[in-house]
Give the backbone structure.
Amino acid sequence: MDEQRLKLILEAALLAAAEPLSLERMQKLFAGEEEVPDRHALRKVLAALASECDVRAYELKEVASGFRFQIRQSLAPWVNRLWEERPQRYSRAILETLALIAYRQPVTRGEIEDIRGVSVSSNIIKTLIEREWIRVVGHREVPGRPALYATTKAFLDYFNLKSLDELPSLIELKDHAVNEDEPE
Amino acid sequence: MDEQRLKLILEAALLAAAEPLSLERMQKLFAGEEEVPDRHALRKVLAALASECDVRAYELKEVASGFRFQIRQSLAPWVNRLWEERPQRYSRAILETLALIAYRQPVTRGEIEDIRGVSVSSNIIKTLIEREWIRVVGHREVPGRPALYATTKAFLDYFNLKSLDELPSLIELKDHAVNEDEPE
Amino acid sequence: MIELEVEHPPLARIRGEPLGEPPNDLYIPPDALQVFLEAFEGPLDLLLYLIKRQNLDILDIPIAEITRQYMEYIDLMRELRLELAAEYLLMAALLAEIKSRLLLPRPPAEENEEDPRAELIRRLQEYERIRHAAEALDALPRLERDLAQASAWPPEDMRKPPAPEVDLREVLLALREVMARAQMFSHHHIHKEPLSVRERMSRVLDCLGDEFYEFTRFFDASEGRRGVVVTLLALLELLKSQLIELMQDTPFAPIYVRRVA
């Protein structure tokens, strides 16, 4: 693969990923192709990408878990204003998906769809994974090998739970309406 | 503010936003500064940004709710390997229902059923609403007051369109010249 | 193969044969028939298929012939006791009606009466346009499949757009709603399933990796009786859903656990 092409692919992956990419993960982009670039080739192309950024609003950074493009510090005052306006909220679809993963884990996307009666978009799964509330713990051995999702320690921490057992059981949920005025 | 600086700020904001930015939202980036660039100035800088992308892995695209940088389609095969989840495929039933709503909006479920010749399951409507591709824009004033559905900006954004005008045109209808002597 | 037969329509062969004997050009292995039926989006779709397959013009459908072929599909589906949506039968009735009206000699006074096929043709055309539109829509480049929004990490010492705050009660309310919708509350076995078992299932899967794991290593005495029971239930549940398997070479030898490969 010529260097120009390699550079475009790495640039695309880094900008699409929204998280740092390790060299191993970059190599996986070429899985199944005749020629997988070695780490040396990757580093060379990354160096070229980094120097091209000199005139741009972002730079290539290497952090513990890999490489990422990052907006320059000097532009922070303007970028900050982007988030000032709207406090974000999760959609009902995200909350339902999260709840189902908590209660039915380990569970596949298809199984969640069966219960919800609605297809679950990949974005929902991606959002929850990025938030580090769910992760893939395995694959169901059926055609397509769908990923099995489970909640994480970070999920428990966020909601201040010691274990999943502290969540109300389904029967409790059904019988007692969730008390809106429950003290924190 | 000089044009070079303006360009860097817009580039930063577009890459930080993770969703399309409208010209209004871009102007808000300069709230409180002596000089807020007008729409004309913004468009000029956006055009410059767009042409600089020619050699890069991404392009500047205007969709219904604003501008976004997006990875070129030709690089999708590599980018898609980043994620465990395959992008969702949509069934013919969903696509036909969506197409009907896009081309015939505002339209009721009954009208969709008449044209497709089959009943439309509520799951299909629910999925489309949940993806925020369609929404209820009113009710037809007939018995039962059925909901009228229309497509959203999110639909246009998702399908890389700026307006409904950009939808592929419907095939021409041939006139029905009835053949009186049907052989039988 | 179908195209070849269209050139020499095998129609005469079929005529007179008892229904339920699938004619050659229609023969579909029974297993495939359900799939086949699902492949059609309804009677209009099936009709269009029959018309296109023979390169006929929608504007000039030989009603009698198409009706006959349509009925063969319907009978075949009934024969195999496939559940047939009412829409298919409605269309069969409509075709039969059009056919009979075409066969009846028309009194001269009604010469300028509309062709009985007109309404059907209009519907077929309209449906065909939507079918094309759906295909065109599917072919458009779209996010997730063909495009991705380009984004970069926010500047140093700045959080990403603040992640939404979520109240646990919101999650529980969402669950209540989805469960009520799916009527999952009526499933008895779910009530009694302690969540700790689900949690343990995730943990077992997580630490299994691709290796063998000795059965007893999953049990931690410090968790007490309750912990042991939870682990056992989790292992049994995983076994039942065929996510893990147990192995033992000889009686009383150590039991090993591994992922189902």
The CA atoms of residues 52 and 58 of chain B lie 10 Å apart.
